[in-house]
Amino acid sequence: MSKGKKFAIAIAVLAFTALVSGLTTLAVTNYGSQSDPLVTLSYLNETVKPQIQAAVEQAMEAKAAELTEQFRQIAGQSTGASGDPQPSGFVVVTLKKGQAVTCGVGTEIMLRIGTAVSNGPDSPRLIDETGGVSVSDAGAELTVNHMYMVTIKGNGVKATRDNTKLLIRGDYTVG
Fold first, then answer.
1. pLDDT-derived band of residue 64, with 50, 70 and 90 as boundaries?
2. Residue 123, exposed/middle/buried by CB under 10 A (0-12, 13-18, 19+)?
3. Residue-wise over 79-91: b if at least 16 C-beta within 10 A, else e?
4. Which residue, 105, 109, 143, 165, has most beta carbons within 10 Å?
């Protein structure tokens, strides 16, 4: 290669480098102008916004799952006669003749052994979940192995025989 060609190539490379440097400087000094924004609205709407929404939804789902589990744990506990938290299952309660169980709303009672009657100030006293009927009258006899639900706070059952055994799930007091 001749000396003239080498010189021409060197001049061309130098001119190209100067052109690229000039264009880069021009682009850097004019970024983010009104006519040429650094980030376009379409980029924000089509790329950034969906990513943010997905991250927020994922965080919300995780928190919702956590709160649901906490709710299940809280709802799974009830307070027994002592006021202490009881497991979510049934508790065996033994009553003497004349003793009454007063319950909170949603408490379930099953008469297992002995005899008992509905008790409480308001009608319906109990709902017979097994029979699908309301027990409206105070003193109505309960059926063994039927599930009853208290729907009005303060209602419950009263034992009419010693050694009456009930299964109870929910809030109750024995008196």
1. confident
2. middle
3. ebeeeeebeeebe
4. 109
What backbone phi and psi angles, to 5 degrees, belong to 116?
Answer: -155, 160
Provide the 10 A C-beta neighbour count for residue 12: 10
Which tokens in the block code for residue 13? Answer: 């490379």
Exposed / middle / buried, residue 72 (Cβ in 10 Å: 0-12, 13-18, 19+): exposed
Map 108-138 to HEC letters.
EEEEEECCEEEECCCCCCEEECCCCEEECCC
If DSSP codes are grouped into helix, strand and coil, which group holds residue 106?
coil
